[in-house]
Amino acid sequence: QAHRERLPEGWEASPYHLAVQIRSRYEGMLVALPVEHWPAWADDSASTLAQRLLALARHIKPSQVATSKRGPKVDKPKAWVDAATARAHVSTDRLIKASKSKRP
Predict the structure, then answer these.
(1) Which of 3, 9, 24, 31 stands 20 to 30 A from 62 (CA)?
(2) Residues 100, 104: Cα–Cα separation, whole Å
(3) Which residues pair with 66 in a beta bridge?
(4) Which superkingdom is the protein from (predicted)?
């Protein structure tokens, strides 16, 4: 909601990237500010809490939490030969004789 007017149509936020952003900021906040100094959010009404969260959401860069869609899978050429070639029998004796006849 905080960035709705500025985002292109079809934009989606990634829950994973949002969780990473929140987790990294939360750990830093724990180091910098003890729990006793945090505002008492439990006493706030739902609308007040929603306003605070929207104010915080305005500081998030949408490009950092956007989903990144994967492209279509690229087809690779098959790594095997056709069945007729695979089943064809060649005698070892014939191969040795053919290789000797090719040498000068």
Answers:
(1) 31
(2) 8
(3) 13
(4) Bacteria
| 60 contacts: CB under 8 Å, gap ≥ 6 | 2, 3, 21
Tens of pLDDT along 22-50? 777 777 777 777 777 776 666 778 888 77
Q: What's the confidence (pLDDT) of residue 69? A: 80
Helices (H), the chain: 15-32, 46-57, 83-87, 92-102
- Which tokens go with 52? 């605070």
Q: Which two tokens stand for residue 66?
A: 């956007």
Give me 8's structure tokens. 């292109």
Cβ-contact 13, 65 below 8 angstroms: yes
